[in-house]
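Section 3.1: Structural characterization of target chains.
Under the original work plan, the team committed to producing a structural model for every single-chain target entering the pipeline before any wet-lab resources were allocated. The record below documents one such target. The sequence was received from the expression subgroup and is listed exactly as submitted; it comprises 408 residues.
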Amino acid sequence: MALSAPPELVGDGVADDTVAIQSMLDNDRAVYLPPPIKNYLISKPLRLKSGQSLRLDGNTVVRLADGAMQYLLVNDDFTNGNQNIHVSGGIWDGNNLTQTCDYHQPGGTWRVPFDPARYLGCVMMFKNVKNLRLEKLTIKDPETFGIHLGNVERFTVEDITFDYNLQRNNMDGVHVQGGCLLGRIANLKGNTHDDMVALNADDGAMFEITKGPISDIQIDGLFCTNGYTAVRLLSAGNPVKRVRISNLFGSFRFNGISFTHHNVYPGEPSVFEDIVIDGVFSAKQLEKDVKPEPWQEGPRRSHALVYIQRDVKIDNLAIQNLSRREWMSGAAPTFWIEAEAKVETLRLSGIHQVNNVEEPLKFFLNDGSINRLFLDGVVVREAGGKKQETLIQGKGTIQESFGTIESE
């Protein structure tokens, strides 16, 4: 009996190319998808095996079929894991206006444990992978996250563009779950409708594909104008440690960088160790020509550029080379530590805040506790040469302080 020939690629944006592309992946370790006539339409996830690479040209579009409610790309074995997977190029279109997941359904039951059979709205999901590389991708219009990682070890995610229509809530860029370690996330561009990068050791509910410590992560080069949050770190039971965040450029309407637990597991410890933030060039407030949504009026303290949530514990945090310039009144403070939060050692070095409006701009609100605070080259400038008498405000405590803040 003669074997049937594999289906041919069509690429006209109408025919379903899922089977044809998967046949290529099933038969070759290195697959190149040539530029299509229009785009490749798929209705089920493309599955990558161990030792496999998938390469596309930068303008090649892979689009999720209307109403398919599936991921576009996953690794083949969530249970036993895979290794040595490489994806390069392509525009991966989640086509979110025709999809829906439990998170966005009215009255949806999203506060339930992760179920691998449930569509979570992500464009790509990789779980239990060693040696993963994703590069030179454009992620377009996910229902929720662009790239979702859990229990991924030795990974690189770089040169990623987010082309989001901002028509859904919780549209993260790169969402990293517990068990991820030894990773580099670099050169991300574009506006997301939630965190550009989230490091969530614990997540709770339907998105928690894995939980556990996150460690040894480098985040380098985030570029966004009027974004939501650049980097959110979350610990509620498992620690986040040895993370370096560098070269953040843009403006963010919620937070630049936040340390949170969000009470996903009430009462569990929220612990961060050895975090370095180096190179932040950002404004907090909206751009002048962007109309805010109603909930954005009158920024709250929790919209601080660097925000540490209540009950968070940080062992060692260094923030250096941060420059903030504001041109609109009512902006939230640069730093805020909430009540009951504890920071063992905080180092602020090369911090420059410039306020260009008449209304004073708060620099540092401390309602928690700091054991040791080191200040070096910290300068705060107000409009018209005015000086703020108290630059560290709040009801919190500082056991020992070294250095001073220069007010100009």
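The longest strand covers residues 214-234.
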